[in-house]
Each structure stands twice: as C-alpha cells, then as structure tokens.
C-alpha cells in the first residue's frame, strides 16, 4: 500500500458476498481486475474507469469481458455497469433465441434493462451453420438493407422494414462495396484495442 491506500488485493462486498480481486487506483477504487457475482458466479474481468466516458455517443465505465457461468456465453467490449454499451462482441456457447444457434455477434451494442444489451447500430450476427447477417440493427433486430452470407460466400441483399423481410434482391456494385466495407470494419475493430 502507498499512503495507506491499497494498490492490489481482494474486497468482499456486504451483504451480496460479491468479490473483487485486482488492482486499485490512487483513490482506492477498482482499477483492473476480476469481479465475481456470488449469486450467479458470473464474472467480469475489466479495466474500471470509475467515471463515465463516451465513444460513438455511447457511455461506458469499463472495458472488459463478462462471462456467464450458467451458459458459458461471453461478452467483450465497452460496458456501462454490466451491459455492453458501445463496440463489442458476444460469443455464444449456448443459444436458444433462434432456430439456428448464434455463434457470435459483433458491432455496436446498446445497454437495455437489467444488464442486457442488443445490437444497435452497424453489426453482424454469425450462426453455427456458418451463415451470417450484416447490416444496421435496432434493439437486436436488423433494419433497412441487410446482407446475408449463406456460409459458402454467396451474398444476398434483403430489406427489413417493421420486422418484414423482403428479397433477395440483385446486388449492385454499390451494395458489394458497402458489404465489403462493413465486414472489413468489423474485422479491424476486433483487431484494435
């Protein structure tokens, strides 16, 4: 400890029994480490900022990884409290939300109620059968022009308005350029901190 402020260690919170193990800043606040929720055994490993920051008009207070102990599903990215809120990705070990199991989602997420989050902005949803949807999302649902990759490299354009999906439509050169640019953006975001 420095000046009676601990630099690293473990804190058990009462009455929840949650535990944080890691480093602390010069004010004694969490800086970097693992927070384990006793009730669920979920954990978040993160860099904590102890203030709210903003990127892409989305607020966050930590960057890290949240692991759900019951399913093994993992979320990585910018968080506001315990929900993704900004660029991130979700990796699914178990998924029952769709007829085909999701493998991963990547893009901009917005925090919802009770620690949940959904794609909300440009992003992609990948399925375990190697298919994927790319496009703009609102509250987890695709909207406007959406691009479907069937897993073999064939890309089709669809349009989704008010939950109604129409298509496929012929891909124009502009569609192909837009699809390529968006898919490359997701790849580069995953490679940069």
Topology summary:
Layout: E1 8-12, E2 19-24, E3 30-36, E4 43-55, E5 58-67, E6 74-80, E7 83-91, E8 102-111, E9 117-127, E10 132-138, E11 141-149, E12 155-161, E13 164-169, H1 173-191
Antiparallel strand pairs: 1-2, 2-3, 3-4, 4-5, 5-6, 6-7, 7-8, 8-9, 9-10, 10-11, 11-12, 12-13
Description:
The chain has 193 residues and is mainly β. The chain is built from one helix and 13 strands; from the N terminus they run βββββββββββββα. The protein has a 13-stranded antiparallel sheet, with helices on one face. Strand 12 and strand 13 form a beta hairpin. The two termini are 30 Å apart.
**Distance between the amino and carboxyl termini:** 30 Å
Spans of at least 5 consecutive residues with low confidence: none
Taking all Cα atoms into account, the compactness measure Rg is 19 Å
Biggest sheet character: 13 strands, antiparallel
Provide the helix percentage.
Answer: under 10%
* Class based on secondary structure composition and strand pairing: mainly beta
Report the β-strand fraction as a percent range.
over 45%
| Average residue-wise pLDDT | 90
Strand order of the largest sheet: 1-2-3-4-5-6-7-8-9-10-11-12-13
